[in-house]
Amino acid sequence: MKENTLKRFSYLTVASLPLIGNAAITKENSMPNIVIICPDQFRQESLGFWSKNNNNKYIQGKADPVVTPTLDKLASEGVVFNRVMSNFPLSSPFRGMLLSGMYPDKNGITGNCHKSNTSALDSNAVCLSDVLLNSGYETAYFGKCHWVRTEPLFDTNGTYIGTTDKPGGNYINAYDTYVPVGKNRHGYKYFFQTLRDTHKDPLVYSNDPATVNGLKDGQQYQPKMFSAELESGVLIDYLQNNRNQRDRKKPFFITWSLNPPHNPWNEKNTDMKFFPQYNQTGKPDLNKLLLRQNADSTVGNYAPYYFANVSAVDYYIGQVLDELKKQGLDKNTIIIFCSDHGEMLGSHGLTGKNTPEIEAFNIPFIVKWDGKLKHSVNDLMLSTPDIMPTLLGLIGLDSKIPTSVQGKNYKSFVSNPTSNSAKKPKSALYIGYHARGVYTGRYTFVVNEEKGKLADVFLWDNVKDPYQLNKIPESKIEPKLLHSLKSELIRLLKSTEDKWYTQKMFNQYFNY
């Protein structure tokens, strides 16, 4: 099918094609459909929900003045978690933990996949998608992957050759790269991958020729289209199933990983329809956009572009959720919204992520399941590896949780927030390239290293100091509290098989 994909999927985002018997899905399948939606670098504070009905009391500091009607509605109908942790707040490590239920030193992704390193998710890891495929689900992936080793296995046209020998030997991207057919797809049958941070000029690979102008899997397509709009159209087409992309007698598991609102933040990489609301006078008033006391408006001057991308993501997610409802699929579908990490947006004079500040590692997390989960704001401290076993537990597949999984199954606390709090996790591990730490909600305790030696150790009191403006050095930490936090950090390093423990790094300090 070699029709113009650009026009076709632009149309699909705003128009509905005839429906074909999808109502049978909810009758024939007792298992729920599952949709995980995960934009890149969407920070917790950028949910409009927090600014409504006194909800700001549930998060640390002020929320952003963003417009996110779709996600606000999803949050108001679902369970909203306010202390979910991206334990290693970078794209690749998060994805590895989400898919495998294992921590980085166990699953192989110990940093962002890049041509300068060998980091990659273990191809033999049994992932969430593998388990669901083997449990009778149709599985589909849309968007950014970023979990395989970045290698020069392409020709000059971006076609996957699979070898560095000519015509191979070329990279298509420094970071994320194409995931070829095989074990590295981890059970995702339907595959529509977009690459690069150029939001209006993504590189696309798919095993559905109709979505890439008739090209084969492994051949590069450049539709010159805003990636979130493109992906929403293909996903809607998959839901409508007019070309039998899936078996409608089976439940489906969809993962949609959008690149926006990840940088770059400029007009060239923003859906500018959503920009004017943050630039009403022709010159953005950053004092009205950056509301957090720790924000540097000079550093965070890209805020109107970041927020415009947040609003764009919200809009295209809305298109997909509307389609689920049109087809009557929403009543038997678990919808999960999250992000791989946050964005500093000028806080502490920083941009990006991969820091131990709250803006970087606390992520938005919403679970909606009509008729099964009541709306609440839940303070369960989920770590990223807990998401896989908890989801499998929620749908009754506890026995299918792989033995390799390090995360815990907290299904009872998701379905019943008032369950025995004594069994709730009391802390979460923070991982950085050169740091480890423990987050307890009240405190963030961080140990930094530099060139193989301990650098500084410090503490934030997140209750007394919600914007983390007053770093407490180790010498000023009350001894009993210091001992408690060190002991908890050691416990987490051991239980996650982190290299700081397995290699006995800084043994004199930790006394493992």
Kindly state the mean pLDDT as a whole number? 93
Helix fraction, binned, reads: 25-40%
Radius of gyration: 22 Å
Number of helices, counting only DSSP H or I runs of 4 residues or more:
15
Task: Give a count of the beta strands, DSSP E runs of length 2 or more.
Answer: 14
How much beta, percentage-wise?
A: 15-25%
In the predicted model, the low-confidence regions spanning at least 5 consecutive residues are 1-28
Class based on secondary structure composition and strand pairing: alpha/beta
Order of strands across the widest beta sheet? Answer: 5-4-3-6-1-7-8-2-9
Order of helices and strands: HHEHEHHHEEEHEHHEHEEHHEEEEEHHH
Intertermini distance:
61 Å
Form type:
globular
How does the major sheet shape up? 9 strands, mixed
